[in-house]
Amino acid sequence: MKFKARIAGAGIMGRLFFLCTLLAGVKVQAQVDHGYEAAGAVATDTAPRFKPHGMLWGSVFGDFAYKSNTDDLNRGVNQYTGTPKNANMAQFRRVYLGYSYELSEHFTAEFLLSAENDYQAGVLGQTANGDILANNKFAPFVKWANLRWKNLWKGTDLVVGQVNNPAIGITGRNNQTSEEVWAYRSIEKTVSDIRGTPVYDMGVELQGWFDATGNYGYDLMVANGQAARPETDQYKWFYADVYAKFFKKRLVIDLYQDYERLNWGVYTKGPNGAWYHDRNMTKLFAAWNAPKFTVGFEGLMTTLMGDVRVTGNDGNTYYATTRAMDMSFFVRGRILSDDKGAAKLGYFARYDNYDPAGNLDNIVNNSNTKSYTALTANYDPTTKEQFVVLGLDYTPIKHVHLMPNVWMNTYNSPVDPTKSNTGMNPNITASKGTDVVWRLTFYYTYGK
Fold first, then answer.
1. Are 42 and 62 in a shared domain?
2. Is residue 193 packed enough to be buried (19+ CB in 10 Å), middle (13-18) or exposed (0-12)?
3. Cα separation of 416 and 103, whole Å?
């Protein structure tokens, strides 16, 4: 009562002073309380913060295989060239062990060990293409070792190191190349891979999108051109890829180009003239992805300047240019699904038509041609090939595939063997040959 009396008896100035003091105290207390609430919010915030983390992963595929027919001339450059008729094999064709590590929100490191193609010369007559030690044991090598700088600028990643090149993709962001859409590398390589284009390389790569949804993008790379081997010359391999997706990404169109200078010099007439030698490939891929099936087409043209060494009747050496064409058609789809809609039983089929003989008629039928040698084995112009594979894909559980399939490759000559000047090469023959292999292919992945 005394307190109220004093307030009541105070003057106007006194009352104003008291009111201001009271309001200031309330404001200070409110700020203090708000501070505690804010501090509590920070302390108890459950929003995830980035923490560096990694993942171990891998994949394996191989076959139980039986070769029922063989090409007597051992043509081709595939894993069954030279394997005798009635040979049976149980073999790995690929073993991966990889590790991916997220260093930060903007940097990722990736490492991959790979052992590939378990065959070599002397093993059932097969060619020396496998990763085999001197004691014939399977040997892994470093296939990937790279650092990715994500969103170096909006929509574009920079990758430095050893990584898949733009012809193959598998970047985890695009899913537009033939390798990714065909999706059966465990059955057979794509056409450019078969012909020796490096599917991985050591260099610098930009992978980008032109839009926010990934409907339009590009992939550019400058690299050694030696795959997992150290650089052996002064020339670099240039890769470029652009793609577009339409109709809610069902239609995919991908255009690829590469170039490499191989040998370069000034030509001087004589038995050992200088060698102008380069190669470039243009490749178009298109596919339609429906809910239950996918169809695709891949066509390439490779121009090899100076890739055929011709010994002339005049005693001089000449270098001729050839062009190789390859067209590939495939379909894959679903027959049965499980309760969640995932494929339980599927099918796949593919047909390739390979003709490396562009300009070969002019070389063989030139009156000055005494003999010739193709300098790139994967593009020997004397052998045309037609490849067929078809099979079923049974998936008992996710990431495990059992795939019975038949693999066939037919060989014949692209030039008329009856002409007098064709005896210079034993592969120029009217005889056709076919390799036929029946396989049960197994494929599984883990960690991803």
1. no
2. middle
3. 61
Cα 119 to Cα 82, 127, 130, 255, 448: the distances in Å are 11, 7, 5, 33, 28
Picking from 36-45, 191-200, 310-319, which range would have the lowest pLDDT averaged per residue?
36-45
Instruction: Give the span between the Cα atoms of 274 and 252, in whole angstroms.
Output: 43
241-276 burial, b for 16+ CB within 10 Å, e for fewer? bbbbbeeeeeebebebebbbbbeeeeeeeeeebbbb
Within this chain, do residues 167 and 139 fall inside the same structural domain, yes or no? yes
CB atoms within 10 A of CB 303: 17
pLDDT, tens only, 203-258: 999 999 898 888 999 999 999 998 888 888 889 999 999 999 999 989 999 999 99
- Give the range among 4-8, 232-236, 299-303, 364-368 with minimum mean pLDDT: 4-8
Amino acid at 369: T
**Domain span holding position 343:** 54-446
Query: What are the tokens at 314?
Result: 């005049």
244 and 105, same domain (yes or no): yes
Question: Cα–Cα distance between 90 and 81 in angstroms, integer?
Answer: 16
> Do 235 and 281 belong together in one domain?
yes
Q: Which DSSP string corresponds to 294-312?
A: EEEEEEEEEEEEEEEEEEE
Angle at 406 (CA atoms; ends 133, 67), nearest 5 degrees = 55
138 and 22 in one domain?
no
In this prediction, residue 214 carries a pLDDT of 84
Residues 326 and 257 in one domain: yes
For residue 437, which of 411, 413, 404 has the smallest C-alpha distance?
404
Same domain, 305 and 353: yes
**pLDDT at residue number 41:** 44
Structural domains counted in the chain: 2
Q: For 70-177, list the strands marked E by DSSP.
A: 88-102, 107-116, 141-153, 156-164
pLDDT digits (tens, 9 = 90+) for 333-348: 999 988 776 779 999 9
Instruction: Assess contact for 112 and 142: CB atoms under 8 A.
Output: yes
Which of 11, 27, 47 terminates a domain? The answer is: 47
Whole-structure pTM value: 0.82
Range with the poorest average pLDDT among 55-64, 281-290, 332-341: 332-341
Q: How far is residue 19's CA from residue 36's CA, in Å, rounded to a whole number? A: 26
What pLDDT is recorded for position 232? 85
- 62 in the same domain as 39: no
Which of 32, 47, 62 is the C-terminal boundary of a domain?
47
Distance CA 418, CA 364 (A): 12
Which pLDDT score is estimated for 33? 44
CATH number assigned to the domain comprising residue 173:
2.40.160.10
Backbone angles phi, psi at 9, to 5 degrees: -85, -5
